Amino acid sequence: MYKPWGKKPALSLSALTLLVALSACTSSGGKKGSDFGSLDREDQGTLKVAYFDEQAFFSQYGNAFQAMFPNVDVEVVSTESIFQADNPEAELEKLIQDQHPDALFLSEDQYAALSKKGMLYDLDAAVKQDKFDIDSFQPSVIDLLKQRGGGKLYGLSPTFSSQALYYNKDLFDKYGIPYPSDGMSWEDVMKLAARFPVKKGSDDPEAMMKGDDALYGLAQSISTSNSFDLIRTIGEAKGLLYADSDTKTVSIDTPEWKSIFESVIAGYKSGSLTAPSTGGGGGMGGMIRMAGGQKAISFGPSTMRFMQGQAAMAVDSPMIMSMMGKMAGATVAVKKGGSGGKTADAGPRPLGQEINWDVVTVPVDPAQPDVTGSVELDNVVSISAASENLPLAWELVKYVNGEQLAKTSSKSSPTLSSRTAFKNDMGGKNVDAFYALKLNEQSLLQNLPDGFADSFGQMADEQIQKAVAGTQSVADTIKSIQSKGQDLLTKAMNDEAAAG
């Protein structure tokens, strides 16, 4: 399961902007030691919080936390420079060393990296002493936190993201095709997509927003950046690894992978699958900063197809639920190409429409139908291993992950609450589909050098496009990806070793 370690935040469309940002925390003052759960309103101290944006922190957490502890001085240190650095991991470690943080709001990959280096505090003692109920959390969230923490719990995540299969009921009814159901295999979903009388739409975003009559069986995920992503996702569901640093090999030229390549490439050719936009955002679209701000997701015309009523299904995150609710009746100024590489404002276009939709569980492997590799942590709140104010830092971790905030957020946030008692009902939709599957721990076993997954995906995309265009056979495409991919892996491992 690949996720970039850290990306520079980007501006989001005004109609889709979601509050929050990446964070990390620092502190001094308050009771020392490890007497967890002993603080009250009269306690004094200083808690430094390194967060992406000071105003965002106080709006989301700081004001309420200070109301609970009015004598605690909360200071915020911006972490925006992390995204501007050539080496964000080193920049974050430097911030921690210079500012001596107590509590940190981290992305999933930052959490894993700092856990591995022993820079985070094991929360086991705090959880037990304060009798903090983690049994009320989504099991896959706790499992993922422990997996990414090397077997220990170094943080808690108030929200998470997973995927489900969205479907347009009206399109299924119109063509007399049965609705998808929970636990379908990828093969069954691909066959279902192929049953629709597909018609490829224009790649021009302005034409799409005018409402062309395109129809696709399955739209790509909002996070899809290249044509290999879907192939990789299906392979991971089956327990396949395309590359591994431990064995120093790329393993894409196998009968199992070939079957997936053939199915997906056939879908691209026929039009039953939407083709992802190059670079993710491409054409019409934009960037959305996820709740927590740790990652910014680009989206393009492919993502818009389902929300425009031009795709029968889409495998995607809860973000789509929120986007469809916000987009109905909204408009966006579509940008189109101009002279000299500039863009011109094509004027407002309708952004979305009312869709009669619901969701079922994300497609699975029949051999292990109760697991998924799509679970991700939006943000992780941790405590620095060097903190001298453990009880005060724990109070912040506990508040951010507490029942009160979960209850409030469930009424106003599109994210999935890690506390299962506070699921957002999303207007009566089957939100349980996002919670139903357990964590596929095998999907975390793939060990890859930094940057390799991106370069491999770009290379594979170029080869897949040749197969889609008919200028290269699927067999030759796989052989080329195997050869070029092995070269990329060898180089990435050598570069990593040289860097120490």
From TrEMBL:
Signal sequence interval, chain numbering: 1-26
Subcellular localization, as worded in the UniProt entry: Cell envelope
Chief subcellular location: other
Record has Transport as a keyword: yes
Any matching Pfam family: SBP_bac_8
Source superkingdom: Bacteria
Membrane-crossing residue ranges in chain numbering: none
GO CC entries: cell envelope
Listed InterPro entries: Bact_solute-bd_prot1 (IPR050490), SBP (IPR006059)
Key words of the record: Signal, Sugar transport, Transport
Family membership noted in the UniProt record: Belongs to the bacterial solute-binding protein 1 family.
Name this polypeptide is given: Multiple sugar transport system substrate-binding protein
Organism: Paenibacillus taihuensis
